[in-house]
Amino acid sequence: MQTESQSVPADQLATLFRQFLAVESVLSREEERRPYECDGLSVYRQLPLLVVLPETVEQVQRVLRICSEHKVPVVARGAGTGLSGGALPLADGVLLSLAKFNRILGIDLQNRCARVQPGVRNLAISEAVAAHNLYYAPDPSSQIACSIGGNVAENAGGVHCLKYGLTVHNILKLEIVTMEGERLTIGSDALDTPGFDLLALLSGSEGMLGVIVEITVKLLPRPEAVQVLLAAFDDVANAGDAVGKIIAAGIIPAGLEMMDNPAIRAAEAFAQAGYPKDAAAILLCELDGGQQEVVTQVEQVKTVLQDCGATEVRVAASAAEREKFWKGRKAAFPAVGRISPDYYCMDGTIPRHQLPKVLAGITALSEEYSLPVANVFHAGDGNLHPLILFDANRPGELERTEEMGGRILDLCVAAGGTITGEHGVGVEKINQMCHQFSSATLQQMHALKAAFDPAGLLNPGKAIPTLHRCAEFGAMHVHHGEVPFPELERF
Amino acid sequence: MIQQNIAQELAAQVQQAFAGKQPLRITGSGSKLSSGRAVSAQPLEVTKHCGIVDYTPTELVITARAGTSLQTLESVLAESGQMLPFEPPYLGKDATLGGTIACGLSGPRRPYAGAARDFTLGARIINGRGEILSFGGRVMKNVAGYDASRLMVGAQGTLGVLLEISLKVLPRPVCEHTLIMDMDTGTAIAVMTQLANFALPLTAACHLPATPQQTAQLYLRLSGTEETIMAAVTFIQKQLQKEQQTLSVTEKKNGDGQADAFWQDLRERRLPFFTDANRLWRLSVPPATPVFTETLPGECLLDWGGAQRWLKTDAGADTVQAAAQKMGGHATLFDQEGATLAPLSPALIKMHRQIKTAFDPEGILNPGRLYEGL
User: Fold this and answer.
1) Does residue A411 sit at the B interface (CB-CB below 8 Å)?
2) Interface predicted TM-score of the whole assembly (ipTM), two decimals
3) I need a labelling partner for A314 at 20 to 30 A (CA). Which of A321, A375, B26, B290 fits?
4) Nearest residue on chain B to A209, alpha-carbon basis
5) Rounded to an integer, what distance in angstroms lies between the CA atom of residue A220 and that of residue A31?
6) Can you tell me the mean pLDDT for B331-354?
7) According to the model, what pLDDT value does residue B277 have?
8) Which of A169, A204, A163 is nearest to A187 (CA)?
């Protein structure tokens, strides 16, 4: 959906905003706008026209009404930790930061839920209710920094999704403001609502349907017992096999993570987690539940792992050792960042049994492009994060990396999977959407957006490609990556 | 006819209806006619589009055509020791997967495992233009594009004709025990609220009101391994003692026909409580909502740990709706007219209309099934 900005001068717009926003909440000087030029995917940068930081819902409504009136596009932003460029600003657009919405508004222990503002950090929710033995389940690896509003916009996951679900499974209610400035309540304090399931639709809609200004999240009681096993394999296929066999045994682990050798080496060098550096793959399996239940399941899983040819199986002897096992996995991304000037993180999901085939495909691509890859895998739910190592300072290497990344995603789609499991499409994977969905389906998604935002002003150009764009992308593929229409916007 | 042709044939019928602005009534087995408002339009028969498309048990995902009978689907899953975790009500022995998802109904396990929408991963549909579209996928984690597959759950066919659905499935628990204890409603709400603060293997909690033959009773279902359940039973007994509840607990183990039948009858709304009601309210409220007989006099059965309350009352519809809303929830009336959903705010109804138009511009799919004009 192309927007036609009437190009209101930035200073005029800033004056309008300053009628109801504090001077320091409207950022117009270049050095003030600079920190907002990118999100967690920093290879894409764009200075916004203006940055506004409202602190009340009424102010958000007024900002959106003014932007609607003047046909100025708006990009909402939480903590800016997103990995797909979903919060990448537009040159002619306003960047709407929700950073000042950082309060926990209420905790209802009886009904085990919390009402929070969108700028509250994910981990801060669990910290606030820890004394009551409760927590908020989704735990994306950026949970120290990422905000709950962004989590809803991306339908964020984490390492415990197989058992505890994604963001969509762990929220009850949203307050949103539409691009036209109208406030809507989506969902309720009960378990369901009459009418269409707009709560599910808003989850993962990448800030394109409405601006989320309040969230009611579900809280869960902490499990009584937790245990972690670490298993080493000399063959990635055996590790993949073990994952299927654990599930076939009727066990749903709280977390089930796989790393391949390059990822193990990087993580070990960085975090000294005690990982076996020569292993082709390791599996981390977290089990939780009642005391006795966990003891029994640990024995069952141990047997499965050994039967699948694990060369070593360790059971954490203490809470400290459990932490240590996880430390390497959680540090995998920064660890890879240390061994390579840059890395590019992919996010496909595949049916798990396709893992050996997809990994072989990635290895072949790695050789073809002469770019090393480290693989980190949420094995329980099939979400694969290949990290392509590259050096952006070498001319052409970023472009080759992006192309290779696109081909990895094509592999995932061909295997019956998806181009993004939890990071979102944003600007990054918009071309691959053309491969995953038919034109009719993409058109339907555009119509759905228009139902919320008829003028197409809210985060335009993200997540859903235009058919025109897909046609060009198809042509691009034929020409082996030579972009044939350089004048087209390259989000 | 091969299945692909059936889908094409259905799409052609919708295209024709779109061109002629002819409303259609999507017809499965007819088991859930009372879950919405009556639609008077030409029927579009969808049950022939059936069969399981893909099922690899270790992937925990099943994909089946919408006309597949729920019974077939559940027995295929059971053969591999798996189940639909949302324990769908059938409301008729020939219930189909499509109707189950379209109505978005979930059984007693819902608050502990999740609802029909939580397990829906992808859907292939025909929109109101007669176009075949695919949303979501066959994997558990997928954020590509808008989640229009979950949007179909509970839309009762007003946004699209369901063709194929992918669902997440889970292993069946090896054991199930049911605890039954005499208890009044207020205490039962307090006990359920208290127990929900602990990670127990609870998978259903229901409170039955007193009848002339029977005192009021709380039913709790625990699922998992034998040892997990035993530990939980001990824990629950201790908690009850703390609350100074000296009571006798009847424990029924799985395989006990009576206990299994109870949960099935609750799911199917076949318990005596339901059978003599020709005007029944369903209140969906926060689980710890206190007893509300003062505002809404009548008999009340609690399911979903208190979050779903079935009410027989003479109170007027406006009174019930206002009370439910004040509690943070909503109410649905079931009577001879079918189901009447709680009214939506003007802003929300406007949004619903716009979404309906986006999928079904001529308003031909199950018009009026959910609300007037939708």
Assistant:
1) no
2) 0.97
3) A375
4) B146
5) 43
6) 96
7) 80
8) A169
Distance CA B103, CA A15 (A): 50
pLDDT in tens, A432-482: 999 999 999 999 999 999 999 999 999 999 999 999 999 988 765 443 334
Residues 196-255 of B with CB under 8 A from A: 196-199, 201, 224-225, 227-228, 231-232
Mode of pairing for the β-strands spanning A342-345 and A383-390:
antiparallel
Classify B132 in phi/psi space as left (phi over 0), alpha (psi -120 to 50) or beta. beta
Provide the 3-class DSSP secondary structure of residue A27: strand
Domain spans of chain B?
A: 2-171+350-359, 175-267, 275-340
- Using alpha carbons, list the distances in angstroms from residue B82 to A246, A286, B174: 14, 21, 10
Token look-up 């859930």 returns: B32
Statement: B275-340 belongs to CATH 3.90.1480: no
Token code pair at residue B262: 């109870």
Q: Does CATH place domain B2-171+350-359 in 3.30.465.10?
A: yes
Say how many CA atoms lie within 13 Å of B97 toward its Cβ: 29
Please indicate, yes or no, whether residues A37 and A121 belong to a single structural domain of this protein: no
Phi (first) and psi of residue B52, to 5 degrees? -85, 130
Strands B120-126 and B82-83: unpaired
Contacts of B118 in chain A (CB under 8 A): 165, 168-169
> Do residues A372 and A262 touch, judged by C-beta distance below 8 A?
yes
Q: For the segment A103-137, what is each residue's pLDDT rounded down to a tens digit?
A: 999 999 999 999 999 999 999 999 999 999 999 99
pTM for the model: 0.95
CB contact under 8 A, A196 and B355: yes
- For residues A120 and A169, the answer to whether their CB atoms sit within 8 Å is no
Q: How confident is the model at residue B244 (pLDDT cuts 50, 70, 90)?
A: low
What is d(CA B189, CA B207) in angstroms, rounded to the nearest whole number? 9
Is pLDDT at A325 greater than 80 in this prediction?
Answer: yes
